[in-house]
């Protein structure tokens, strides 16, 4: 490469996190030249994450990530987005890390670089031959972020650009607690007025929060002047799915238009009093076990699926379309067995026509928006005991990446179909 000016182009350099790179191209290389394409990100916790692929330039001295194969690195094959979905903590990092965006009004910034040869380490000690900075956003231009602290409800409301009115989504994460905003921000970037809801505070003991809290949150969305009041759905992951199923089955106050449940179960519905729920979990604690790396595995806690109808949300009562999204290698919760039991209950009740189930092989519990790095295990604080463990979520990088990309498209399609988005109402914003 001596005497040449290597060119690296990345398009777009500014886009939404679920938007694919149209091109990552290296030019002005010698033919059949070995190079490494490397992606580096510094998280908000000041931890470094990286991904890299090994390429050979073609006869014209070009590497095009969209069409050329990576022959090694953190991903192999033709992978346009491999530089993002295969990111992992750099060697020597703290253990148990998980990459999550907390400040959605700022971009996720990645540095994409080209290096001579096929490297596997010491990237920060060597000079790249070319680099480009790219920004990945959860919030599209014009999306409004509104803090919610009213009627006892804590959350963040994201409103799409334009006058609306828009369909609404109540967005709930799982048992890790806290206020997690990035999925709701991305939903707003696709035309949904979405509220990220906090319902577990990791700093406090678990409060006995009944259905009224979630019904009030749902009503706050409905009552917003830019929301179509009868076009509000619910999206939940893990424990958030339990809440969603409970609301859809039992609430006499709200009527969700549709529900999406990711990696969840109908066992231990949120309608059970907290003391009773914790007692059941305590009795099932003997089913928790660890793998050879001391990662905690929870999936057996609810196996076999109980036959006691009092310990399950009666999904036969659900009257809205329901989408279940599950990973075939979920090591945290018995989602496949739960989905099968849900289908059986709904079949007997006569409402199985409302159910759609997506199951992805080689996919773990943490099914997130596209190109989020796969995390097989990470640190986790068990809420009711405050015990810090390393939780095994399951999955493998490639299969998990495929699931996240496909399921996100299907979730958006499902929400658009049942919340009746019109094509001219809220087009996807461009950065």
CATH class of the largest domain reads: Alpha Beta
Whole-number mean pLDDT: 92
Number of domains: 2
Question: Which sheet architecture does the biggest sheet show?
Answer: 8 strands, mixed
Rounded radius of gyration (Å) = 23 Å
Strand content: 25-35%
Strand order of the largest sheet: 10-11-13-12-14-15-18-19
Instruction: Count the DSSP helices.
Output: 7
- What is the helix fraction of residues, given as a range? 10-25%
Kindly, what is the distance between the CA atoms of the first and last residues, rounded to a whole number of angstroms? 34 Å
* Low-confidence region ranges: 423-427
CATH topology type of the largest domain: Rossmann fold
Question: Topology of this protein?
Answer:
Elements: E1 7-11, E2 14-16, E3 23-27, E4 34-42, E5 48-56, E6 63-64, H1 82-85, E7 88-89, E8 108-116, E9 130-137, E10 144-150, E11 153-159, E12 166-172, H2 182-189, E13 193-198, H3 211-223, E14 227-237, H4 239-250, E15 259-262, H5 274-283, E16 289-290, E17 296-297, E18 322-327, H6 335-349, E19 355-360, E20 377-382, E21 387-392, H7 397-419
Parallel strand pairs: 2-9, 12-13, 12-14, 14-15, 15-18, 18-19
Antiparallel strand pairs: 1-3, 3-6, 4-5, 4-8, 5-7, 8-9, 10-11, 11-13, 16-17, 20-21
Task: Give a verbal description of the structure.
- This protein is an alpha/beta fold.
- It folds into 2 domains: 131 residues, Immunoglobulin-like (Sandwich); 276 residues, Alpha/Beta hydrolase fold, catalytic domain (Rossmann fold), CATH 3.40.50.1820.
- It is 20% helix and 28% strand.
- The strands form 5 sheets. It has an 8-stranded mixed β-sheet with strand order 10-11-13-12-14-15-18-19, with helices on both faces.
- The longest helix has 23 residues.
- The protein starts with 6 loop residues before the first strand and ends in a 12-residue tail after the last helix.
- About 1% of the residues have low confidence.
